[in-house]
Write a structure and sequence with these properties.
Blueprint: E1 15-16, H1 17-24, H2 30-43, H3 45-53, E2 62-63, H4 65-75
Antiparallel strand pairs: 1-2
Helix pairs in contact: 1-2, 3-4
């Protein structure tokens, strides 16, 4: 009998930075996943411009929904 693996659909909402990073980098430590996601974001100039345009604050511990929308638009769904 086949086991059904239920895949959760990605929900567009506000996320803690570590929570979103772990979705993009499963199997990594929280610190490693966050560093990787932040590096990807910083290397994508169109994404950085879009985030800057909506008031992104690097010191905040969460990504707002609008920021998550831009991240997904530029990096794809986790």
């Amino acid at each position: 009998m086949k086991e059904l693996i239920e895949e959760k659909k990605f929900e567009m909402r506000a996320y803690d930075k570590v929570e979103l990073a772990l979705l993009y980098c499963p199997g990594r430590s929280a610190e490693s996943a966050l560093k990787t996601l932040m590096r990807w974001i910083k290397q994508c100039q169109p994404l950085m411009q879009a985030l800057g345009g909506i008031g992104y604050n690097v010191r905040r511990h969460r990504f707002l929904r609008q920021e998550v929308e831009q991240i997904v638009r530029h990096l794809g769904e986790p």
